[in-house]
């Protein structure tokens, strides 16, 4: 990793630490004032964004990418102001712990009086945050990565705007492509936790609907480091293709070992985009060649909008953007639009201006669906190909304006 | 299950088990001799992988990494022992938990700070790419190499502990360090040497497994509990126990997904509980070892 | 005079002071008064301090539960997360399906924690030392996988019981005598009262003949067994009591966060608890409370910095090397000789000892 980027990161960390302290001081003053007058949202001339993200451990890379995406828009392109209002940030580390996420959310809502909450990475953390945000109603939640569709299904809340994706969108739409172009029979392999099970089930439902058959399904515990025995089961299934959900280090272990046991010569590997995304692809290397996946953002996508984003991001951070950075960037676009359209940071007017709104996202078409506040967006089917110095995803087909179910949510 | 399947799964089990020995041997020797419960052992393994990653990036040579990274980890392990564990000898060994837990946390943060949180991987050397045809099935060459190295190291250590003077002092110190000290051997230096040896082996495992698996800051935590379980199953402080325990757990990992796919993550703990309920000091442990 | 009486007297005689000496009790009383007065002050200045303090109280209670078996009976439990989680999940399920009354929910959390501890204790006591620790770890991790994979739902044929890795969320506040404890201040006082009550209870237990036997077991369990005590039974009882307290801590933790999640049950929770106990000074009861306060405070205040674990780890390392008896030891040293010059010379001699031990 270039040392230049490291020192940049260190600076930004210290910087936000100071901001955080300054923020706390301001809040003390605000709550003192609150004893005498009514303590509304933060001051009329500022917009406060709270990052509820992992900044330590395995997911810290995702957290930092989201922050980078947000700051690229707000700090670099808008000079730290939205519609004449100064942007302020607070951030705290969720790790991967839902209880910590809930507690930070409470603090940001009650004590920091944030206008927007950006985060989290993990769906379990999102589940814990949701009741806090729904009952408070004092901030807009820009959900920049947690894809669990049940966030919308059970007691959906109007304050929740997903600037990322839902589980259905990253799994089911791939079914008909596989059935038409790759194989009419698959074996499913997945990390055995909610997200993996959801992706697997949603894919299976759609794949059977379009006429394909599922031969077998194999779940491996989250965090498995050696998949060889599971791979043998996959091989024994005799299917022509595999659809998988694994992410992070699981995805690297799975793909590397899949190919080292020669399964890539016997069956076609496909999966949700997180199986082969920018944060794991370099580690997977040539083991990933030829594999298919479905995701809403591909850095190599050949559009002017994306090229402009990639150029801006690369020159700022000295690395190509990934899907998480794009989700962060789109969160910033949403915040910008909400404050500008509503003419302030009052929560309910911001909700009205975001519902049904379109964003000029690098990923392509993007609209907050009015009924669920989930995105309606373009999804890319990609294949891993060789590139200079490694491998990369190449878009083979773009599915336009993918919506998905509403799960009974009607906002 | 066809005969090829059983044979291949068995080989997988042997391979997974024997590679784990590299991690567990250090853990059990360190405990046996110094009563140190080393939570940082997984972090040393992780550092082996990250040092290996950097050496490969800088030199482009995997074999250099295989040589250099474990030595660097050994050096670091030596420093940790010298500067922080040594002052604690004579105190309740429970404080080692706090100390090594502190190191595990610190190194987790430090690795994320230096190398970033994203998943990485050491590229397989071209010499060890591809598969070998073993009549009934084919098997990745690199994994055979892993198996070979693990067996060689395990055997060499076994011989060294039986035959060499240092090995005899080591075993004697594990049995009764005060007596060895009284007889004129500087036990402290033996301790440092054992800690360095354990660190080198963990670092070696880091480079080897960092090539076949993902390298990320979570790898320390994911191996340490498994390694503890193996050491406890075998009997703390017992070299033979660490080898047999790793072998058994390797087999469990290999056959588990076939026979109990829903409960693979519970199997290790079931085994550990079962062994300790029948033999409260593990398979080859002595109650005094506790 | 029976053998047991002689032993009892022998132990009492050896124990020069009671558990928690008079001066420490005065100190704790003052701390309690300060804690009671703190809430209105925080309400006026920065209400979120109460949130942090409540977090501290709950983990202090949890650490106290470990210190009771670890510090007094010498049973190093590496599985206290199981009881913490059991109490927590029981609370969540009760609040969701039955009642929010604290008078029902919290006693149930205690009972469930105690029941789980009794089972784990009964299965584990035959192992000693580190093997006991690893057995409790094994059972706790088994419990974790059961909750993570929602085995209860599988067995009962329901859609969700523990709700797997997503946990149970949106748990509403407890009610006490018809009063909602949802406000920060109400929950602050509830947790403080529980911590104070349990500290009093544990102190009494530790000073009772039962507590003396436990300490004797810690010192030399073979001798205690030889005299005729059923050592295993004492251990199981102590472990069960401790589990009940851990269950209570879990029962307070869940409504506080409005979530019950698998992280409560993970081995790292047990590990963190051991760290709190050792950092504070095991076997002192108030030390682990201070340890919990420090760890919670550090985690909260450091977590705004990137990779804050580096600094947390360094704090642990420095304390364990230079303060052998943890925070309790530092406090004792300071109290016995508040003169800064003496303290400075003590710090110097600690450094000198360190140098000597390392470089000799």
TrEMBL record, chain B:
It is a multi-pass membrane protein. CDD domains: TM_PBP1_LivH_like (cd06582). PANTHER family: ABC TRANSPORTER ATP-BINDING PROTEIN, BRANCHED-CHAIN AMINO ACID TRANSPORT SYSTEM PERMEASE PROTEIN LIVH. It is found in: Cell membrane. It holds the Pfam family BPD_transp_2. The chain crosses the membrane at residues 20-42, 62-83, 95-116, 136-161, 190-211, 217-236, 243-260. GO terms for biological process: amino acid transport. Signal peptide: none annotated. GO terms for molecular function: transmembrane transporter activity. GO terms for cellular component: plasma membrane. This is Branched-chain amino acid ABC transporter permease. InterPro entries: ABC_transp_permease, BCAA_transport_permease. Belongs to the binding-protein-dependent transport system permease family. LivHM subfamily. Keywords: Amino-acid transport, Cell membrane, Membrane, Transmembrane, Transmembrane helix, Transport.
TrEMBL record, chain C:
Pfam families: BPD_transp_2. GO terms for cellular component: plasma membrane. Coiled coil: none annotated. The keyword Transmembrane applies. It is a multi-pass membrane protein. Keywords: Cell membrane, Membrane, Transmembrane, Transmembrane helix. The chain crosses the membrane at residues 24-42, 48-66, 73-95, 101-123, 130-148, 186-206, 236-254, 274-298, 310-331. It is found in: Cell membrane. One of its GO terms (molecular function) is branched-chain amino acid transmembrane transporter activity. This is Branched-chain amino acid ABC transporter permease. It comes from Haloarcula salina.
């Amino acid at each position: 990793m270039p040392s230049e980027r490291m020192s940049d990161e260190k600076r930004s960390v210290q910087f936000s630490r100071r901001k955080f302290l300054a923020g706390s001081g301001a809040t003390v003053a605000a709550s003192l004032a609150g004893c005498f007058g009514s303590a509304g949202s933060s001051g009329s001339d500022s917009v406060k964004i709270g990052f509820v993200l992992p900044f330590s451990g395995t997911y810290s890379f995702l957290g930092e990418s989201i922050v980078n995406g947000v700051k690229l828009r707000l700090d670099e392109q808008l000079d730290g102001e939205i519609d004449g209002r100064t942007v302020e940030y607070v951030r705290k580390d969720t790790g991967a712990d839902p209880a910590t996420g809930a507690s930070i959310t409470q603090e940001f809502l009650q004590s920091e009086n944030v206008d927007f909450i950006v985060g989290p990475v993990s769906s379990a953390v999102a589940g814990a945050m949701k009741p806090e945000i729904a009952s408070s109603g004092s901030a807009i939640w820009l959900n920049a990565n947690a894809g669990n569709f049940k966030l919308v299904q059970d007691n959906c809340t109007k304050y929740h705007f997903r600037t990322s994706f839902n589980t259905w969108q990253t799994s089911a739409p791939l079914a008909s492509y596989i059935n038409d172009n790759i194989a009419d029979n698959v074996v499913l392999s997945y990390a055995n936790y909610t997200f993996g099970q959801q992706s697997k089930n949603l894919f299976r439902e759609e794949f059977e609907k379009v006429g394909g058959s599922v031969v077998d399904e194999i779940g491996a515990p989250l965090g498995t480091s050696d998949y060889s025995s599971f791979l043998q089961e996959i091989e024994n299934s005799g299917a022509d293709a595999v659809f998988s959900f694994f992410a992070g280090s699981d995805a690297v272990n799975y793909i590397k070992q899949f190919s080292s046991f020669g399964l890539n010569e016997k069956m076609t590997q496909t999966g949700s985009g997180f199986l082969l995304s920018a944060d794991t692809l370099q580690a997977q290397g040539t083991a990933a060649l030829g594999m298919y996946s479905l995701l809403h953002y591909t850095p190599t996508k050949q559009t002017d909008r994306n090229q402009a984003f990639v150029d801006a991001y690369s020159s700022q951070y000295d690395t190509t953007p990934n899907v998480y950075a794009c989700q962060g960037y789109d969160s910033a676009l949403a915040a910008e639009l909400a404050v500008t359209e509503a003419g302030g940071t009052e929560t309910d007017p911001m909700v009205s201006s975001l519902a049904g709104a379109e964003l000029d996202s690098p990923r392509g078409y993007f609209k907050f669906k009015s009924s669920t506040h989930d995105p309606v967006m373009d999804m890319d089917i990609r294949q891993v190909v060789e590139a200079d110095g490694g491998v990369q995803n190449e878009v083979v087909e773009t599915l336009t304006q993918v919506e998905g179910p509403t799960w009974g949510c009607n906002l | 299950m066809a005969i090829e399947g059983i044979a291949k799964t068995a080989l997988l089990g042997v391979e997974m088990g024997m590679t784990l020995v590299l991690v567990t041997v250090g853990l059990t020797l360190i405990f046996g001799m110094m009563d140190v419960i080393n939570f940082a052992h997984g972090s040393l393994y992780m550092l082996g992988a990250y040092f290996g990653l950097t050496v490969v990036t800088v030199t482009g040579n995997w074999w250099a990494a295989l040589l250099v990274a474990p030595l660097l980890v050994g050096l670091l392990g030596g420093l940790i022992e010298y500067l922080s564990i040594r002052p604690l000898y004579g105190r309740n060994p429970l404080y080692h938990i706090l100390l090594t837990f502190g190191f595990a946390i610190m190194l987790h943060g430090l690795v994320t700070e230096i190398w970033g949180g994203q998943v990485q991987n050491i590229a397989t050397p071209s010499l060890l790419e591809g598969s070998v045809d073993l009549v009934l099935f084919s098997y990745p060459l690199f994994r055979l190499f892993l198996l070979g190295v693990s067996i060689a190291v395990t055997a060499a250590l076994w011989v060294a502990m039986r035959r060499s003077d240092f090995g005899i002092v080591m075993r004697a110190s594990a049995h009764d360090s005060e007596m060895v000290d009284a007889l004129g051997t500087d036990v402290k230096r033996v301790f440092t040497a054992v800690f360095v040896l354990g660190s080198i082996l963990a670092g070696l495992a880091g480079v080897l497994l960092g090539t076949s698996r993902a390298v990320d800051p979570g790898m320390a935590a994911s191996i340490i509990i498994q390694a503890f379980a193996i050491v406890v199953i075998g009997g703390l402080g017992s070299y033979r126990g660490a080898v047999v325990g790793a072998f058994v757990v390797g087999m469990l990992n290999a056959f588990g997904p076939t026979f109990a796919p829903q409960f693979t993550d519970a199997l290790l703990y079931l085994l550990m509980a079962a062994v300790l309920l029948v033999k409260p000091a593990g398979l080859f442990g002595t109650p005094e070892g506790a | 005079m029976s053998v047991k009486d002689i032993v009892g007297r022998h132990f009492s005689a050896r124990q020069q002071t009671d558990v928690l000496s008079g001066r420490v009790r005065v100190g704790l009383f003052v701390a309690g008064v300060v804690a009671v007065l703190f809430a209105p002050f925080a309400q006026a200045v920065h209400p979120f301090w109460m949130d942090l303090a409540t977090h501290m109280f709950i983990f202090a209670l949890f650490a106290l539960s470990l210190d009771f078996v670890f510090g007094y009976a010498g049973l190093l439990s590496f599985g206290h997360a199981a009881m913490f989680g059991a109490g927590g999940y029981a609370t969540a399920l009760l609040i969701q399906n039955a009642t929010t009354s604290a008078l029902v929910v919290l006693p149930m959390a205690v009972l469930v924690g105690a029941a789980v501890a009794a089972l784990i204790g009964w299965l584990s006591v035959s192992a000693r030392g580190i093997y006991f620790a690893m057995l409790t770890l094994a059972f706790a991790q088994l419990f974790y996988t059961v909750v993570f994979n929602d085995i209860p739902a599988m067995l009962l044929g329901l859609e969700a019981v523990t709700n797997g890795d997503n946990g149970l969320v949106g748990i509403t506040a407890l009610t006490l005598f018809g009063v909602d404890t949802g406000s920060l201040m109400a929950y602050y006082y509830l947790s403080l009262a529980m911590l104070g009550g349990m500290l009093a209870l544990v102190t009494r237990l530790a000073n009772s003949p039962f507590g003396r036997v436990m300490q004797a077991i810690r010192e030399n369990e073979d001798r205690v067994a030889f005299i005729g005590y059923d050592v295993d039974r004492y251990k199981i009882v102590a472990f069960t009591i401790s589990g009940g307290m851990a269950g209570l801590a879990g029962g307070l933790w869940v409504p506080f966060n409005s979530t019950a999640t698998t992280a409560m049950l993970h081995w790292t929770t047990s590990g963190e608890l051991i760290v709190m106990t050792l950092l504070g000074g095991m076997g002192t009861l108030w030390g682990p409370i201070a340890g919990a306060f420090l760890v919670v405070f550090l985690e909260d205040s450091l977590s705004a910095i990137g990779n804050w674990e580096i600094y947390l780890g360094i704090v642990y390392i420095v304390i364990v090397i230079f303060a052998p008896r943890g925070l309790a030891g530092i406090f004792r040293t300071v109290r016995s000789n508040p003169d800064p010059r003496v303290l400075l010379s003590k710090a110097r001699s600690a450094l000198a000892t360190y140098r000597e031990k390392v470089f000799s």
